[in-house]
From TrEMBL:
<feature type="transmembrane region" description="Helical">
    <location>
        <begin position="1062"/>
        <end position="1082"/>
    </location>
</feature>
<dbReference type="GO" id="GO:0006506">
    <property type="term" value="P:GPI anchor biosynthetic process"/>
</dbReference>
<keyword id="KW-0808">Transferase</keyword>
<feature type="domain" description="GPI ethanolamine phosphate transferase 2 C-terminal">
    <location>
        <begin position="906"/>
        <end position="1063"/>
    </location>
</feature>
<feature type="transmembrane region" description="Helical">
    <location>
        <begin position="677"/>
        <end position="697"/>
    </location>
</feature>
<feature type="transmembrane region" description="Helical">
    <location>
        <begin position="586"/>
        <end position="604"/>
    </location>
</feature>
<dbReference type="Pfam" id="PF01663">
    <property type="entry name" value="Phosphodiest"/>
</dbReference>
<feature type="transmembrane region" description="Helical">
    <location>
        <begin position="861"/>
        <end position="885"/>
    </location>
</feature>
<dbReference type="Pfam" id="PF19316">
    <property type="entry name" value="PIGO_PIGG"/>
</dbReference>
<feature type="transmembrane region" description="Helical">
    <location>
        <begin position="509"/>
        <end position="526"/>
    </location>
</feature>
<feature type="transmembrane region" description="Helical">
    <location>
        <begin position="897"/>
        <end position="919"/>
    </location>
</feature>
<dbReference type="GO" id="GO:0005789">
    <property type="term" value="C:endoplasmic reticulum membrane"/>
</dbReference>
<protein>
    <recommendedName>
        <fullName>GPI ethanolamine phosphate transferase 3, catalytic subunit</fullName>
    </recommendedName>
</protein>
<feature type="transmembrane region" description="Helical">
    <location>
        <begin position="958"/>
        <end position="977"/>
    </location>
</feature>
<feature type="transmembrane region" description="Helical">
    <location>
        <begin position="482"/>
        <end position="503"/>
    </location>
</feature>
<dbReference type="InterPro" id="IPR037675">
    <property type="entry name" value="PIG-O_N"/>
</dbReference>
<feature type="transmembrane region" description="Helical">
    <location>
        <begin position="828"/>
        <end position="855"/>
    </location>
</feature>
Length: 1096
């Protein structure tokens, strides 16, 4: 068997796809250019002075309005949380809990005001911090850095404060430490990644907040609370814990106001909102609507109070706070000052003049940034820039004329006030249109790289298809199809890498790998252009399609037409945002359609009915037993598809959608009876999975030996199930434990998952070390005399009575052996040998199921049980179709057992099932739907690195991809496992049936070992087909993202879909290699086992 060439060829095919993904991503998800320019007090941006307006010594750009400011960021403080509605008699848990804000705004309208604080998507914490400090708009690709923050190099508010000698003190979310290293005069950081921890960060802040405020050694104090956000992630907003957390924040604000001085500005802000499930990251109304509350003991606002809270973008906070504190506005800011905070005392004209001074500075800073950015990036529309420049110049000229009018000392008049108001409107229009231009043109694409990436992925799909057809040849040319392409690719990579090292600081790995992949693909296709090989196929000598007639070619394409047609429809639908949004319902429909049409095709061809018997009435048709079994399996499959819809997550684009209650942990249930009922169902599903696997292994004889792997299945499987059940019991009641029990609960929350990780890892190692699960019963006789083991004559009557029966029995056995020696030879009975490959895969899949199950919420165990049941049903349907099809469809003629070719319908159905259960395990291709709490299963105190939590979250997200990719070789093995004697044989007489069974015992998977070359080629062909189907879906997503890159829903639908599809492809391809490697490891172990069974 050619093991390493097959694995190497598949790994090379995966590398080709990875290179295409990397090249396309580098052109599609580019970050905007970040300018390194910085504002300074020496910049000539200040407006000309007017009467009553002047710069004090040490002031910068305009007079300092407040000497100190406290910025309280309550993470995920939605506007609905801060608003108070006294008319609500029965408010929800998150409503009317911040009553102190309402009290301040009502009793002191000139001192306090509440705003709608609108966030710019993506609404993830790190991107919002960047927006709140730089005044710029973070790009989509920054989402991937949310939990691996890097320092902000762009000009920002904290940098300006430090540059001008101000003291910044921070306490709270440690994300700020990575974004602003060495920027704080004093800091108190607390771990932020554990979304299940509601109190550590908040309690740590409260411990230092009041003493720090009273100490006064600060100019800007920032406190970032996380309890509300973590409560939303853990319980959702509509939960009693949210009411407790908001009540805590209310009391904190009440106490803090008592500690504030009269010269201090208080800002209470939410960085984003949250959905009804407590998530965020997208751009829905609930996610972008946060709250901002402004308060000072000195009057800030005019007498006029708006009826409804004003809506302001979050980037407006940066220029406002910078000018209030007397420091320059950060260079890259595109926000607009909050003009009412600059009114001051005096009449309307005086207030308008102060506001215009702030607007002029703000507009000149934005104009300077747009000019610098257009020179560096050259992606802002020139026509729009000219229009903005005209608006700015006109407003500036009008402002100069008004200032000249004021300098003349003329009294204020209604006409002057009207002119001032119109000029304020001009500046507002310019700033808002400038921000809109940036929002529209912010994403910079690299069209050449995107097109090249698409071409590379398309060529990889074509290569997989062509190679899968060539792999059917008995003498697949590994040298010309693998060795030469690899050498060409390495040579091109070496030349490009060396050239870039000589001309640049370092090589562009994405570009080098893409060129190497393209060169190796060219080397693969080059031999095909000169000649078309004509070889014997695996199916048993079928002529190649090139030498067949038109009818044979059409008939050969009839089989793949059905699955390829459905795959083509799925790929075409990737260009519709409605399809992507509704894919959770479309994927089961496609799988059900494929299975139903396949059965209908068999019925149309008459493969479900039995051959006509002599006594059969004319026109009567009787279905075979396998046909009824196939129809029953189809019914079970449709039931599984229907039940899997109970575990779906909702997308915000689907109105009136309620997420499955099974997604929430049991601890969120208020009813103890319901909690106990669901817990028993979860434990029952876990026990059912263990019992089903053990029963299958026992049925095929793979649970009889004393090998380490079999002992692991016997003892470790129940132990793993018990540990997982205990972990579920602890997590479901962890919130109710008190006192010393809380310490035991914390130990259990860490101990049980880590024990599962360790024992499951041991099982995977055993599966690789000793994968053979065969019990040997040797009936070969040793040559020896028929004598008693006693030496000499019996010395007593007791010994004689003991020896005589032994001699008699030995004589009987010898006589029987001599009589049977003419027609029956001694054999070695090996139990489980016919399913040795499948048994190892089933064991590994079950162990992986345990690992992935503990990363999900308890009630997802029901979905995992459906996953394994549906996979088993698909395999049985495949085996029945192989048994019934004969030479129908895309299956070749079966001779001496099932074919060595897995048809396209089986591979396509397997991929569709993986996609279906991606949604049926509570996932969606959106960032808010990621189950971040999986990173803390067994790691309650957090992580020291980002690698392990990324692996845990990735395993949770792509659980179905992992299981179906590792189990992909079962599509080849299962028809051999289900191989049985023909049904006609059961009608023979008993004696003749026994004789036939002795001569033609079903070999099952051992038939694969009769032709090792065909076995390895079949594995290669299966892997290439699987990669082709995955690659076709990936190619459709890539094309959709590229063609629709200016679509309104590109960053909300198409870009996340591409990212999830690309990551799913990478995970699936790696796990596919692991599954095929396991089969080859079993084959090697079986070969060694046969060598040990040589005749003695």
């Amino acid at each position: 068997m050619q093991r390493w060439p097959v694995l190497l060829f598949l790994a090379w095919a995966c590398f080709l796809f990875f290179s295409g993904i990397g090249l396309f991503t580098s052109g599609f998800l580019l970050m905007r250019i970040e300018l390194t320019n910085r504002s300074s007090c020496s910049d000539p941006l200040a407006a000309p002075a007017w009467a009553g307006q002047g710069l004090a010594p040490g002031a910068c750009w305009m007079p300092q309005r407040v000497p100190k400011a406290v910025l309280l960021i309550i993470d995920a403080l939605a506007f609905e949380f801060a608003r108070f509605d006294p008319a609500k008699a029965r408010p929800r848990p998150y409503e009317n809990k911040l009553g102190f804000l309402h009290q301040l705004a009502g009793s002191q309208p000139r001192h306090a005001r509440l705003y709608r604080f609108r966030a710019d998507p993506p609404t993830t914490t790190m991107q919002r911090i960047k927006g709140l400090t730089t005044g710029s708009l973070p790009t989509f690709i920054d989402v991937g850095s949310n939990f691996a923050s890097y320092a902000i190099e762009e000009d920002n508010l904290l940098g300006q404060l430090v540059q001008n000698g101000r003291r910044v003190v921070f306490m709270g979310d440690d994300t700020w430490d990575g974004l602003f290293p060495q920027k704080f005069f004093r800091s108190y950081f607390f771990p932020s990644f554990n979304v299940k921890d509601l109190h550590t960060v908040d309690d740590g802040i409260l411990q230092h907040l009041y003493p720090t405020v009273d100490g006064g050694e600060w100019d800007l104090l920032i406190a970032h609370f996380l309890g509300v956000d973590h409560c939303g992630h853990k319980h959702g907003p509509d939960h009693p814990e949210m009411a407790k957390k908001l009540a805590q924040m209310n009391e904190m604000l009440r106490s803090l106001v008592d500690h504030l001085g009269s010269d201090t500005l208080l800002l209470v802000a939410g960085d984003h909102g949250m959905t009804e499930t407590g998530d965020h990251g997208g751009d829905s109304e609930k996610e972008v609507n946060a709250a901002l509350f402004v308060y000072s003991k000195t009057p800030l606002f005019g007498a006029h109070r708006p009826e409804e809270p004003e809506t302001i973008p979050q980037v407006n906070l940066v220029p406002t706070l910078a000018l209030l504190l007397g420091v320059p506005i950060p260079y890259s800011n595109i926000g607009e000052v909050m003009a009412e905070l600059f009114s001051g005392d005096g009449g309307d004209a005086s207030a308008a003049l102060r506001q215009l001074s702030a607007y002029r500075l703000n507009a000149r800073q934005v104009d300077r940034f747009l000019h610098s950015y257009s020179l560096a990036a050259q992606d802002l529309p020139a026509e729009r820039l000219r229009h903005l420049r005209e608006l700015f110049s006109a407003a500036l000229e009008e402002h100069d004329r008004l200032l000249a009018h004021v300098q003349e000392g003329l009294p204020a008049s209604p006409e002057l006030e009207a002119r001032l108001r119109r000029l304020v409107g001009r500046f507002q229009r310019y700033l808002r249109e400038a921000r809109a231009v940036c929002m529209e043109s912010w994403a910079r694409f690299h069209p050449l790289r995107m097109v090249a990436g698409c071409a590379l992925i398309a060529a990889s799909c074509l290569l997989c298809y062509v190679a899968s057809e060539l792999a059917a040849a008995l003498d697949f040319p590994y040298r010309s199809r693998l060795l030469y392409p690899l050498l060409w690719g390495l040579a091109v990579a070496a030349v490009l890498g060396l050239g870039q090292l000589l001309t640049r600081e370092g090589p562009d790995l994405v570009l080098v790998s893409a060129w190497a992949a393209a060169a190796s693909q060219l080397a693969f296709f080059w031999p095909s252009w000169g000649r078309r090989p004509r070889r014997a196929h695996l199916a048993g000598g079928q002529p190649p399609a090139a030498s067949a007639g038109l009818w044979q070619r059409l008939r050969a394409w009839q089989g793949p037409a059905l699955p390829m047609g459905l795959l083509f429809l799925r790929c075409c639908a990737m260009f519709s945002d409605s399809f992507v949004v509704a894919e959770a319902r479309v994927a089961p429909f496609l799988l059900a359609s494929l299975a139903t049409l396949l059965v209908g095709k068999l019925h149309w061809r008459g493969r479900l009915t039995a051959p006509e018997a002599p006594k059969q009435p004319p026109g009567a048709a009787f279905y075979q037993k396998e046909s009824w079994q196939l129809l029953g399996l189809l019914a079970v499959l449709l039931a599984c598809l229907r039940l899997s819809g109970l575990f779906h997550q909702c997308r915000e684009e689907i109105p009136r959608c309620q997420p499955s209650p099974c997604l929430a942990p049991l601890s969120s249930l208020q009813s103890t009876q319901a909690k106990n009922l669901f817990y028993l169902l979860c434990v029952a599903s876990l026990a059912g999975l263990v019992c089903a696997v053990r029963r299958w292994l026992r049925h095929y004889g793979n649970l009889n030996s004393a090998s380490p792997l079999v002992l692991f299945v016997r003892w470790a499987f129940p132990l793993l199930a018990v540990w997982i059940a205990c972990y579920w019991a602890v997590t479901s009641g962890a919130e109710d434990t008190l006192g010393k029990l809380q310490e035991l609960v914390q130990v259990a929350l860490v101990g049980f998952p880590r024990a599962v990780y360790g024992l499951a890892s041991l099982g995977l190692l055993l599966a690789l070390w000793t994968p053979v699960t065969v019990f040997v019963k040797d009936s070969r006789e040793s040559v020896g005399p028929i004598v008693t083991p006693y030496q000499g004559a019996p010395s007593s009557q007791a010994e004689l009575l003991h020896v005589i029966p032994q001699i008699y029995r030995r004589m009987q056995e010898s006589l029987k052996s001599q009589l049977d020696r003419g027609h029956r030879r001694a054999t070695v009975a090996a139990y489980g040998l016919g399913s040795v490959y499948s048994a190892a895969l089933v064991i590994v899949l079950t162990v992986l199921g345990f690992l992935l199950l503990i990363l999900h919420s308890e009630r997802m165990s029901l979905s995992f049980l459906l996953l394994f049941l549906e996979a088993f049903v698909l395999l049985r349907i495949h085996a029945c179709v192989v048994s019934l099809a004969g030479d129908a469809g895309d299956l070749p003629v079966r001779r001496n057992g099932p074919p060595f070719v897995v048809p396209w319908y089986a591979v396509t159905a397997w991929v569709f099932a993986a996609t279906q259960f991606f949604y049926s395990t509570g996932h969606q291709p959106t960032f808010p739907a990621i189950h971040w709490n999986a990173a803390f299963v067994g790691f309650q105190q957090g992580h020291s690195t980002h690698l392990l939590p990324a692996v845990l979250v990735g395993a949770n997200t792509f659980a179905s991809h992992i299981l179906f990719a590792v189990g992909c070789p079962l599509l080849l093995l299962w028809p051999f496992v289900c191989e049985a004697p023909n049904s006609q044989r059961r009608k023979l007489k008993k004696e003749l049936r026994e004789e036939l069974q002795e001569e033609e015992e079903p070999m099952m998977e051992m038939r694969l070992r009769e032709s090792p070359e065909r076995f390895s080629a079949a594995l290669l062909q299966l892997g290439l087909k699987y990669l082709f189907v995955l690659g076709a879906q990936l190619l459709a997503c890539v094309w959709a993202a590229m063609i629709l890159r200016r679509h309104l829903m590109v960053w909300k639908v198409f870009a996340p879909k591409f990212l999830f599809e690309a990551l799913g492809f990478m995970v699936s391809s790696i796990c596919l290699l692991l599954g095929i490697f396991l089969v080859m490891r079993v084959d090697y172990a079986v070969s060694a086992w046969f060598e040990r069974l040589q005749p003695r």
